[in-house]
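Let us begin with a simple case.
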Amino acid sequence: MKEKFKLTALEKSWIGYDIGNSAFILLVTAIVPIYFNALTDAAGLTESQYFSYWGIATSIATLLVAFIGPICGTLADYKGFKKPLFTLCVMLGVLGCAALGAAHSWLSFLVIFVIAKVGFNSSLIFYDAMLPEATDDKRMDNVSATGYALGYIGSVIPFIVCLVLVLFAGSFGISTGTAMAIAFLITAGWWVLLTLPLLKRYRQVSFVEPEAHPFVDSFRRLGTTLGKVKQEKHIFLYLLAFFFFIDGVYTIISMATTYGQSLGLDSTGLLLALLVTQIVAFPFSILFGRLSAKYDTGLLIKVCILCYTGISVFAMFLFHLWQFWLLAVLVGMFQGGVQAMSRSYLGKIIPPENSGEFFGLMDICGKGADAMGPALVAMVTSLMGERTVTVFGMRLQGQNLGVGFLTLLFVIGYILFCKADKLNKARLTKV
């Protein structure tokens, strides 16, 4: 009889951070764009301007992290650096999240949002680099997938509280602005609470001895790591593939609500649909973790990329709320799988003592992609303005066309990943 998969105390603590930070992402994905839309409406901005500005802010946040990510990752590999830097980034994100409720103009809100997003994204560099130390190669896929799965379902708890608070603010005798401020505080508190067990239990066991000038020397080590990546073609191609396919994934996640809002879809319906995404993502993330024990991780990633290609084509022709609901279900089926498998795939092909460096490079690919996707959609939307084009007999707006470009990114990512996976398998055969 097959032994039941049980998590260790450290693995549980590591997964706990997935649960904690996912509340922030769900809030940012679902409620925050609607609140930002209200701020832009009050300022007299058009729907196209609202959509473009949100995309630009998202891109700025991710570009900043893409710039500092590799350096942070390199510093994290030094003995005693990983946990303090992780803590610093978490606090930046938490404080930024809490401060969002104090912003009363669309511009100040975007500035604070960028700060909070930078803190959140930076913390993930160190968090992901902890994975090879929190578990072993054989359990990595399952632990990573479980993290995403519980993150999705766990984030629903504070989200429902925040959603009820915002939707029924009048019944509680408070304004929508006050309700949002409280929602930001609840999310920040949840984030901190679920982070504490990891801070208590985690100990850095794989490291590089610190240099006399760690910050300066981190640039030298980064150069060495880039040289390693260049020599290890399977890692290089994987990171390049990741850049393209995760671009589409992150763009769909970060701009789903904004996209629906710009098309004039019902706000409450959008929020409930995204709640469905989280609920669907929970069992399917678990499923991908279980499938990883039976099927090759590379194969599972390929399946996810192909499915996302179809999702992006479908999203291009989205006009009605029921279509958005269907999109939410489809995204939930493959979102956790592609993210979890991508994270563990890299963890298994890199040396653990250099995990920070390589996950820092992965982060620059992910965040660079995350910046490119929203910027691309925003650019196409801005260029189109209020004009429409007819495709297959359907009148498409700039938003629709921008989303359609994501299909190409998935196709490129799939081709590159197939090449990387082939090289990796050939390498393992020789060992």
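The second case is a distinct protein. As before, the sequence precedes its structure tokens.
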Amino acid sequence: MKTTIKHLSDTKVELTIALGVPELTAAEQVALSKLSKDMKVTGFRKGKVPIAVVAKNVDPQTLQESIIDNAVSKAVAEAFLSEKIQVLDRPAVEVKKFVPGETLEFTAEAEILPKITLGDYKKLKAIKEKVTVTAKEVDVVIDRMKQGMADKKEVTRPVKAGDETVIDFVGTRDGVAFDGGTGTDYALTIGSQSFIPGFEEGIIGKKPGETFDLDLAFPDDYHVADLKGQKVTFTTTLKTVKEVVLPTIDDEFAAKVGPFTSADEMKADIKRELIEQKERDNREKLKDDLVGQLIEVSTVPTPEILIADQEKSIEQDFERNLMYQGLTIDQYLTTQKFKDKDEWLAKEVKPTAIKRVKAGLVLAELSKLEKIEATSAELDAHVELYKKQYANNTDALAQFDNPEVRRDIANRLLTEKTVDRLVDLNTK
């Protein structure tokens, strides 16, 4: 076998392979053996036809096609392995010359894992932001706690800001109800800004049992295209009103919400947790910054097949998240002023996909240079953590014994260890 390599780009190669008599003879024997399994010849059981008999009874065209398939498959695998080239997709094969029993010449083109040249990854600019927590930030947390511990009592007085209400409503446009504009026993806190401007304000001053019309207009940038700027009427019935009485922040309150002996102790604990959270967030930001810098100082060719895979993954995940929010991709495109999906893919999805591919490639190279590995014990420990998280989900638990899932977890673990090493190297 003779192999010639032509680099079409940093991420694509073309191998020209020439096979002679020995390779074609071997391929013929393999082809005959495979064909014998399904051949029916009088006097022989299926699958037991001798090779010599198969050779005399097989269709010549079928045999030659099988010879080519077997010869090409074996030669391509051996050629890429011999040249130490990691292929990212199935090579595209084109037969150039075939003389039965004598010679076979063909080309095999494929995208490959490119050579990555890292810059000086030990001299990146690691900027660690100073963590501070203000009294206002602590108060925000306390306000949420107060809301959770609030005393709520039903009242018959007119509605005020901050009240919790239950309403029925029907939205109409030109006297016709529109999709998404109807609700029954809907819980609404006045001031939450859950509805379009004017709706909650219009309920203030109304009493339980009242039915009234709210003449409003949807914002010009509303996410539903046919409702943008449209004048509508919400016929609303106020069913119940509850006054929300917030508790006083004192030692008694602190004892109710946690193992605290005083309000000051509670506030100190909240501040400590906020600091820890900010430090975690800062470390994640530092990781992202350093990986981004490593990409910038490195030479990172990006195979199109890897970019395409990432684009598909990003698109699917994004649309799934939109669905959870009750939105469609078309609604998102409209609100973000993209003219169509193709523009969104080009401006948002592809740049993200390229960044992810480059990050994966530089981190893989760094893990090799720094000899970072994910041990079996570390993998087992990670798997056990996942299993604890999904302890009540039988189907999910079963997945963690799947070799592919374990391999995915191992890859993520290796990435985490590599990024941590990058941080350590630049924060000494």
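The mean pLDDT is 92. The longest strand covers residues 231-245.
Keep these points in mind for the review questions at the end of the chapter.
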